[in-house]
Amino acid sequence: MLKLAGPRAAVRQLEPSLVAGSGDDERQCAHTQTLEEGGVLCAASRSPGDEDQLYFSSTRAHLIKHPCKKNIALYLGRQIFFTRDNFKSSLLPLSIPASMKVGTPEVTSAHIADSVLLLVVNQKIYIYDYEANSWNASIGIEHPVSHVSGDNCCYSGHPFCVDISNSVFAYLHGDQISQTNVYFSDTQGYRFQKFAYERQARFGYSEHPLNSSFGLPFDYNGTLDILITPGQKGILIFWFEKSLLVSRNSGQLVYPVHVKEGPNTLYSSISEANITIHSVAANQYELAVLTQENNLYYCSLGILSSSLIKFAGQNLWSQEAALMFTDVGRVEILTPLPDSVFPAFDFQKCPVNIQAVLMDPQLQVDVCKAELLQGEFDNKMYTIDMNSKLELTALMIPRPGMSLVPLVMVSNPHSLGLQAIIYEDGYTYDGNTKHRLNISLRQQHHWGRADPNFTSSIKRPTGSTITLDIANKEISCVDLKPLTALISVGCDQEKKIVIQNEISACHKGILDPVGLQDNYSYVIEKEAYDPNFQGQKASEDLVVDYQYQKLGCPHLVYYNTPWKPVVELWREGKFQEVIKAEFVLLEVHGLFTYTYSLTAQTALCRAQPQNWTTIMENPGNKGPFAWNRENYVSCHDPDNDAPLRWPNVPYQILGGPTANKVIFDQRNGIYVFYVSIVDPYYSYCHLETTFSVYVYGAFPLSIIPATVTIIPLMVAMLLSVWLAYAVPKLLHTEKGLRFKGFWIHPCRRCRKACACFRGRCRVHQGSPAWS
Asked: Would you call 261 helix, strand, or coil by DSSP?
């Protein structure tokens, strides 16, 4: 039975000292009905007879500890226990609702993904949300699975970190590699999909550049359990009863762990030392092993390999014992103890202080050579975007008379390159020399020192950890842990783009900012827009409410001048640069009364360029605004083999190597544009925004059709030309002379009358002088 209750809620069931968890969980489910539809059930709403008690399939106890939430852990043995207080309270064995119909309640594998617990029960995956206290069945797995695995990122809520914590794999042990079914989930295991890659039949890595390598083979003689150490360092522990191997680069190179028993005895492997492993525990920096021979072994997981050291034998082992690190240099051996009266279990804890044990003279461990290893970047997360770099510093102080060898390593050298410089930086009060280490980090691609076949694809965001350690550090330097940071080679979330707006329609008095904020709306004629973005006329006019809070006052653009927006990059509220990379525009309401100054041919395209129509027709792109850095293919790319079949189509990409601009039709009004940076080599971010422009200066189009005015005008012009030629010629003929004479007499009479009139006017105007 699963019962997570506090002392107040558990008085009816158990003594307060034997009750685990929080009373809030039971109160949360107090009014929840049993839900079988959708596979969801609230744990605290069930009676004891409605559950199946879970048990672990292995004869060896396992313990899984949440790397981020230090009090969360899962014990796997003859009973399974889940704790939220690090086994401080008594626990009831974990049960699953009978309504889930799991059949045999045997657990073969488990994983804690952020705030949910994943259990493989009878070859299916079930999810226990311990915060909501409810159960679910995973969706999407169509074949039997035996194991589930994943990782947790503890640095921040950065999307890169969240993606790591949400990613889960499920698979079946014992299948042929070429035939096995692997499933992947990016929803913490709630929904899976089939995971397949080209090299699965030959068993290789799925991503470039490791997909061209199988890694080096290694020997093992049993079914290995795999322990992923916390911290995303790429350290993997492979083990079973008679074998213990370690990889420090995600399985590319795997080495057996040496065993040191006493100052002069060194074995090359676990099997040679003739010991039988019972339980294994690891944190970011250390590894501990409990054997059936009642011995505890310990080693450091530093950059360089080290040997397991045998501690003095004690009565530690039992079939139900399991190891757990509670802190750096702190190990506990846990054993569940049943109660003779109540169904709850207490846990016997045997704490071990590693630093104190290593001081035992019988172990003959050398004193640590270092006094200090310090860096502000330790246990932090950083982002390196495209074409960016990161500078880190660290301080190292050796003991008097000692010399240290610092060693910096990245877990993913295919994507992240480094350069380190060390120099003396003064002295301590005791006269010890201080050494300063400056570390420069950039994408491996941009260092220019690695073969292209070695580097990761620059288009794909990746990640890596950086670790600074001391190469010649003794195992006694337990408290002097390595300095580690997680580097996301991807999108810098602090970046955004802004459209420069130096001259706005409000600045010129064309629009009133007060009016724009007062529920301003405007009409787009049905002849000018298409709601489906296909350039077809709509069936009715569109009334648009202007969003002043988002768009501000529109940028002012003259219709008859080719125009291109000036896109600026900002980071943390500070201007960085004007973006010269390639970008695209789309009017968000479907206005199509604009075109581009260049065509595919005049843009010197080698291949047929993409456009908004081809992007929207692609079924893999969702929504009309799906053109981005991930699906953009440049027509100037020599690897683009799309034939140039329509050279006269408008070239719809702005920026980059061309001088392409937007040309507006003869229409005044507001345009609201969506802009997206599509150059895959500028940033890993989807840099996009919306902005508005006001187009002015276009005379209204004539209501009268052009043919109605042009034809009469042409006839009048032709008639004028003909008259200018025919009239002078006609005047020299007999008819012309009679016609001319007919008009001469009226003209003469008219001139006499005019002269008389002008004479009287002169006399009248001069009369005042005679009076």
From this structure: coil
